[in-house]
Amino acid sequence: MWPRPCPSKSRLLTTAIIGAGPLGRWLALAAARAGDRVLLEDVMPSNLHHAQEYIRRELSPSNLDQEAHISFVSSIEDAVREADLVIDCVPDELESKLEILWLLDRMAPPRTVLATPTTRLSITDLAACTYRPDKCVAIVAEARGLAESQGAEILLRATPRTSAETVALVGNFWRRLGIAPRFETETDRSPTLPVETAASTNQPACPSSDS
């Protein structure tokens, strides 16, 4: 059963979803139902086609106009160019997360908030790989579980440097989807990334452009 989107008087977001698999399709549909402008990205045309068919099946005939809120794009650059919020749907693996966050950080406007689903990796360490550590939040849920069983509450993990504006934006996004956000701040834990480079050079420890 779908959560009921909550009406909001706050400014509607432009939300980019990276990856048109089951989680990306669900997020795109839920955000469009809440009134957001959504850009759903995938490099595979077949994935975008399946996502479009899925969204059309899920929308009732009286709500087909909501599909107009969703644009299907095949490049990350097109997806994030005007995004207020980006949610990636890449595998919860260190190499994948490093690569996507590096790309998003490079291509998205400075104001854009990055939210990444992960249950294994440190959001503090991942955020340290970007030039916007104050705009990074972890969605603490398995991608498959989130897509298949949307609950009444979602756990979100911030870093000690996450700004109040970031928390408010991400929290409002989930509330409009009809899901209550619960925030926690990540405490000290064993690092998952080689952040020594970032600390010593004041540069993000992300893959280089020729990697």
State the fourth-level CATH superfamily.
NAD(P)-binding Rossmann-like Domain
Mean pLDDT: 85
Largest beta-sheet characterization: 8 strands, mixed
Please give the order of strands in the largest beta sheet. 3-2-1-4-5-6-7-8
CATH fold type: Rossmann fold
Q: For the record, give the distance between the C-alpha atoms at the N and C termini, rounded to a whole number.
A: 43 Å
CATH architecture: 3-Layer(aba) Sandwich
Low-confidence stretches: 1-9, 194-203, 207-211
Spell out the helices and strands N to C: EHEHEHEHEHEHEHEH
- The CATH class turns out to be Alpha Beta
Q: What count of structural domains?
A: 1
Shape descriptor: globular
Structural class: alpha/beta
Task: Report the portion of residues in β strands.
Answer: 15-25%
- Percentage of residues assigned to helices: 25-40%
Number of helices: 8
The total strand number stands at 8
Radius of gyration: 16 Å
Set out the fold topology:
Elements: E1 14-18, H1 22-33, E2 37-41, H2 45-58, E3 70-73, H3 76-80, E4 85-88, H4 94-107, E5 113-117, H5 123-127, E6 136-139, H6 143-148, E7 153-158, H7 164-176, E8 180-185, H8 196-201
Parallel strand pairs: 1-2, 1-4, 2-3, 4-5, 5-6, 7-8
Antiparallel strand pairs: 6-7
Features:
Rossmann fold; 211 residues; 8-stranded mixed beta sheet; alpha/beta
